[in-house]
Write a structure and sequence with these properties.
With 615 residues, the chain is of the alpha+beta class. Helix content is 53%, strand content 11%. Strand 4 and strand 5 form a beta hairpin. The protein starts with 6 loop residues before the first helix and ends in a 6-residue tail after the last helix.
């Protein structure tokens, strides 16, 4: 296990990590008065409900309920634990976290994630060195030269060379203190099922390191150099504790800022395509990594951009992949355009043969996906024949049925009807059939997921973590007082002396109020932000919203006077309930004379204090 991070280091990392800079790397923030706002990165929405306060260094998402500090945001966005979030931000800020117990590569002193990341980084750096200096790496250097791939670009993306030996990388890693369990977990070695011998997974290949969007090396892709070899052209790392293919977009660590600034992402098929675009100054580019484009990929792009330009190869495989990507991107309500690459070309080859202005024009003139699909279908079918028109109508009905925006849907339906010269009613009937087919498919998938979940013992379908933990619903008076004290902590002693804990017992949010009093009494309260930081996740969500929208102090009074009024309201409400209980008690026949007199005296005292209370 990794050592405990000292509290002073946590605070150092917090102060070095401006929340606006960190969150701005995930979502495009816009200035809104003294704060920043954006569309929620957690929910689909059209009106911004996500806010960041640079003064308090907190965020609040009013659509999802999430809120908190910079660590909480990273934990939510990257599915990290608190220590992982601290380490990620420490690395970003260049802060060294001292580890307790053990040496540099001692697996007992480092968590599995940290050791894997350290191993990947070290291997990537060694392979990069070999690409430059090892005579055996000449085929890799020759390959790059044949592709007009400059050495500066190779260095910028950390390209390297994996030695063509049975266990050269394995021995190098062990010599440098990395364990066999780490090598196996990182999928850098494999074991022969025949001989039982362990060997290097990547051998004699040009190596492309894969980074997560924080810039950490999480995996590798190896390009075959010997064209005569009977092996697959590319080999990619298997999934590991730090690498899930469907959640990594190649190049995002470099291109994220450009995507946010442009509000648009160019989606390429391959790593070389992306690097070539980068070389020519086209920076808002990403590529799926070692797998088809997935739902998590689409969700990542939704956080960063409003539009995606798909720039896949012009061959059949590329166009089929583009169609799958379109469906996933539309589910995230992204605008989608299709760049038409000439047949036989891809972004890499086109940029090598033509001036960059040619490719930029292709991107600029990329058509809305609906027009592209219609053009492609009409090129593939003979729309002068009834059969051809019917085939195109059926294909376009599937497209129309998936368009989420009603205005766009209507416009495209009319375009298709005009292009095919068929009555609108005929096309609408095809769309209804397509909608029914889509619904059947979705129901089938849902039933399969439910059945799979039941078999795996995952509990009742539809139950989510958010349902299991309801948000805090504070009493209105408690919320008003909490807000007043967090924004004006100098009033806390005045209120804590006057407020009897019995007056708030059982009220929503009362535990936060009493914890605030306790923290202040023990000199453990420094600020509202610190109080929020030390709360549990559910409380953080609530307090972040309260700090963003504090209850206003009435203009005709002062904070001190308003605090007194709130305390008096707590007392009055409690004594109203007490009065009702006392009246019921004195009407019963179970009290002694002494008890009855005592209760009557208490009733009189309450009425003198609050004469307007109900009997």
């Amino acid at each position: 296990m990794a050592g405990i991070i000292p509290p002073e280091i946590v605070e150092q990392v917090r102060h070095a990590s401006d929340i606006v800079d960190v969150i701005g790397g995930y979502v495009p923030l816009k200035k809104s008065g003294a704060k920043f706002k954006a569309l929620s990165p957690f929910n689909k929405e059209k009106t911004p409900s996500f806010f960041v306060d640079p003064l308090k260094q907190i965020f609040k998402c009013f659509s999802s309920g999430h809120g908190g500090d910079v660590f909480k945001f990273l934990m939510l966005m990257e599915n990290m634990t608190f220590p992982e979030a601290v380490r990620r931000l420490a690395q970003r800020a260049g802060i060294v976290i001292p580890e307790t117990g053990g040496g540099r590569h001692d697996p007992e002193a480092r968590g599995r994630r940290e050791e894997l990341l350290a191993l990947n980084a070290a291997v990537a750096a060694w392979w990069q060195k070999l690409l430059h200096s090892d005579p055996a790496a000449e085929p890799a250097r020759a390959y790059l030269k044949s592709r007009d791939f400059p050495s500066a670009l190779a260095d910028e993306f950390g390209l390297g060379y994996a030695p063509d030996g049975w266990d050269v990388t394995l021995k190098w890693a062990q010599k440098n203190g990395y364990s066999m369990p780490a090598l196996e977990a990182g999928k850098l070695v494999a074991t022969s099922s025949d001989s039982g011998r362990t060997y290097d997974f990547f051998r004699g290949r040009l190596m492309i390191p894969i980074h997560n969007d924080a810039g950490e090396v999480v995996a590798f892709s190896g390009r075959l150099l010997d064209p005569e070899a009977k092996a697959q052209k590319y080999m990619n790392s298997g999934e590991t504790p730090v690498f899930i293919k469907s959640k990594i977009l190649f190049g995002l660590n470099k291109t994220k800022r450009a995507i946010i600034e442009a509000g648009s992402a160019v989606l390429c098929e391959g790593q070389i395509d992306l690097m070539r675009c980068w070389q020519h100054g086209i920076r808002n580019v990403v590529a799926p990594q070692g797998t088809a484009f997935t739902e998590p990929h689409a969700r990542i792009l939704k956080r960063l951009a409003q539009e995606v330009v798909i720039c896949f190869d012009a061959d059949n495989a590329g166009q089929e992949a583009a169609q799958r990507a379109i469906d996933l991107l539309l589910k995230e309500d992204l605008q989608v355009r299709i760049a038409r690459i000439p047949k036989g070309e891809d972004p890499d080859s086109l940029l090598r043969k033509q001036p960059v202005a040619v490719f930029e024009a292709i991107l600029r003139e990329a058509k809305d996906y609906t027009r592209h699909l219609l053009d492609t279908a009409c090129e593939q079918e003979d729309i002068t024949s009834p059969r051809g028109r019917g085939a195109v109508a059926a294909r376009m009905a599937q497209v129309i049925a998936r368009i989420p925006n009603a205005v766009q849907r209507e416009g495209f339906l009319l375009d298709v009807a005009r292009r095919l010269q068929v009555p609108r009613s005929v096309l609408e009937e095809e769309v209804r059939k397509a909608e029914a087919q889509i619904r059947r498919g979705e129901l089938q998938q849902r039933d399969q997921r439910i059945a799979a979940g039941t078999r795996e013992g995952e509990g009742e379908p539809g139950t989510t973590e958010s349902e299991a933990q309801e948000p805090i619903r504070a009493d209105m008076l408690v919320e008003a007082l909490l807000s007043l004290l967090l924004t004006g902590p100098e009033i806390i002693p005045q209120v804590s002396r006057r407020l009897d804990p019995a007056w708030v017992e059982g009220l929503g949010g009362a535990e936060m109020l009493l914890r605030l009093f306790d923290a202040h009494a023990h000199d453990a309260f420094e600020s509202a932000t610190q109080f929020l930081d030390e709360s549990d996740d559910r409380t953080k969500d609530y307090l972040a919203g309260l700090l963003f929208h504090p209850t206003p102090v009435p203009t005709e009074t002062t904070p001190e006077a308003y605090a007194d009024q709130l305390v008096r309201n707590f007392e009055k409400r409690w004594k109203q309930q007490r009065l009702q209980l006392l009246n019921l008690a004195v009407k019963s026949n179970e009290l002694s004379v002494e008890e009855r007199m005592k209760y009557l005296m208490e009733i009189q005292a309450i009425r003198r204090q609050f004469p307007d209370l109900e009997p």
